[in-house]
Amino acid sequence: MHLFKNQHILFWIFLGMLILPNLFMFFTESTGTLTRVVNILLPLAAYWMAMTLKAKPGHMFWWLFFFDFLAAFQIVLLYLFGESPIAVDMFLNVITTNPTEVNELLSQLLPSVIFVIVVYGTGIGLSIVSIRNRAKLREGFRHNQRILSGALLIVSLILLGVNCFKDNRFRIQDDIFPINGCYNFALAFERAYQSANYVNTSAGFKHDAVLTRSDSVPEVYVLVIGETLFADHMALYGYDRPTTPHLQGDSIARSLVRYRDAITMSNTTHKSVPLLLTPVASQAHYDSLYRERGLISAFEEAGFKSSFYSNQRRNGSFIDFLGCEAQDVHFIKDSLPLSANPYDEQLVTLLQRRLKAQPTQPLLIVLHCYGSHFEYRDRYPADHQVFGDTDFPTAEKQYRQQLVNAYDNTVAYADFVLSRVMTVLQASGRPAVMLFTSDHGEDIFDDSRGRFLHASPIPTYYQLRVPFIAWATDAWRQAHAAQWQTLVAHAEQPISTNMVMYHTLLDLAGIRSRLLKPELALGNAAFQPAQRLYVNDHNEFRTLDNCGLKPLDIDQFAKHNLRYP
Questions:
Q1: Measured distance CA(232)–CA(238) in Å, rounded
Q2: The listed CATH number (2.60.40.1930, 3.40.720.10, 3.60.150.10, 3.40.920.10) that belongs to domain 219-559
Q3: The pLDDT of residue 64
Q4: CA 379 to CA 72: how far, in whole Å?
Q5: Which of 319, 446, 481, 507 could staple 521 via S-S, CB 3.0–4.6 A?
């Protein structure tokens, strides 16, 4: 214990804690070797110099507490995703993820959480020891360390300049920790402010939407947004387990179109869903999201009544804002305790009630599911467990089969819920269309990288490939036979779900808007496949070959005969 009262030993301990994530990142990052070397030397020199500014290193540990927090956060994310700095989206997820999800996630990150608590909790304790200790760092020691750290700083700045010259992809705000963490934290703060101010910045926006067909027959359009559903786990998409018996049944299959080559433009819910509910993706300018209203407003302008039903909790994100544009809004979990896990079938009950309450009005109804979000075993009733066993004490690769069993049960339950939506719409006797897609997919230890969950700063194939399904009642297909045939004809075309959703739904409903692009509407003869893009952590639209996908991901595109890039 006497050693830990020695201020000079504490000096080096605190310096080691600060630089620890950079040492890990030397082995985890896919950047060039020189970039990874600079990512150690430059921050080390800066921390080293900073630690000399106080006679008691415990004081400087607290002055640098934000960087200690970033270091701990970074280590946990490296454990979860295996690479990449703390993303803007990860900071935003801290604000928009509900406490139940946090608890479910943290329970699966215990090794990394325990590690950072032990390391940085010990640091806090030792800093108190340092501050209360009468002894101080010798002035000669501090002087020598300033000289050494200054020399290292000069060397690292020279190497930084060389790296900037040699590597045209290198950006200090992306590749040097904690600079990237601080930069992304500032961006997250800016985005949170813009989101909170959305009501003001979008006030007065109009789609100039008008209905071009008679409303004497009240049509119904239902958009079902799944959660975390990876298309490769659906038998409808070739999976070798019977996860979609209802969608493949004769009564549904004849009126269903499966779009084989569909991918999402984001692997995060709080970004993907707003892109589905607005025309932003087709404009390739993300900031327009802060100024424009969404799909629901366009239908409202055209004379439709609208509903937004969600089985997810409100979180102050754009999903809430865009959903609340509807006249009829219901978040199932609003009145329930945090521990409650209602099943998605309750959304079907709300749909049924709305159809009965508005029998003569054209309707747009959006159903936002909780789908396949982890913890998988909580997403389906016990009598819907098809695949077992699902007993996994922790989410680790050794329990992959049990995780997959539980995940496949969520897929089978989603199949059941969708079939119920279709049954209710068909029974209404009204012309109706249902479109279904998921916000993103999921990693479940699928390959040698050992990736799990989604929302990683760098996407994977498993997070990008999602289902996209169109279905229509007999009455709608008879009334709009040519449009239905056009939907069918485009089933093999490569699409970005977020890019086509707004345009397809408006076009199917006979709504025209100044933002509508017929070439992005799947039911329009003018449809043309657009270049597929990914919206990265900095809201930049990147082509698939420039968004961080690895050879393992590209192999999967080839294996499933999907277009890349």
A1: 7
A2: 3.40.720.10
A3: 97
A4: 31
A5: 507
